[in-house]
Amino acid sequence: MVQQVTRGIKITVETEFEGTFYKDYKINFAFAYQVTIENQSKDSVQLNARHWTIYDALNQPVIVTGEGVIGQKPVLKPGESHTYSSGCLLTSPFGAMKGHYNMVNFTTTKKFNVAIPTFKLSAPFAIN
User: Fold this and answer.
1) pLDDT tens-digit series, residues 46-72
2) Residue 82, SS3?
3) What is the greatest pairwise CA distance in the chain?
4) Left (φ > 0), alpha (ψ -120 to 50) or beta: where does 11 sit?
5) Taking a C-beta distance cutoff of 8 angstroms, is the pair 124, 15 a contact?
6) What are the structural domains, with CATH classification, of the chain?
7) Per-residue pLDDT tens for 25-44?
8) Which of 4, 35, 76, 85 is the most exposed place for a label (fewest CB within 10 A)?
């Protein structure tokens, strides 16, 4: 588990290896991750967009951007949190992800970024 706080918004990420499977005659390694976004600030905020960089030990980094998270743009009042699960596929048993969320503060109407800390993706059988 990794955690980081940016401007009063705490991000916690937990990962899990889901298994291997073949796609287009190539082995893929499936990883799930659960993100909790906790508003520890005094203002209500909304998550509007996400920006991920996915690192695969055998490939170039992949950039993923989009609105919200899993089709939602959660609004968090002070003390509230939002948890969601997602996943990614790698072509190797090792990788990592990091990124940021684009958010808006409803009190000041200012937009800001919240860092998503780098988290490792590793298949347990490949760890020495």
Assistant:
1) 999 999 999 999 889 999 999 999 999
2) strand
3) 52
4) beta
5) no
6) 2-120 (2.60.40.1470)
7) 999 999 999 999 999 999 99
8) 85
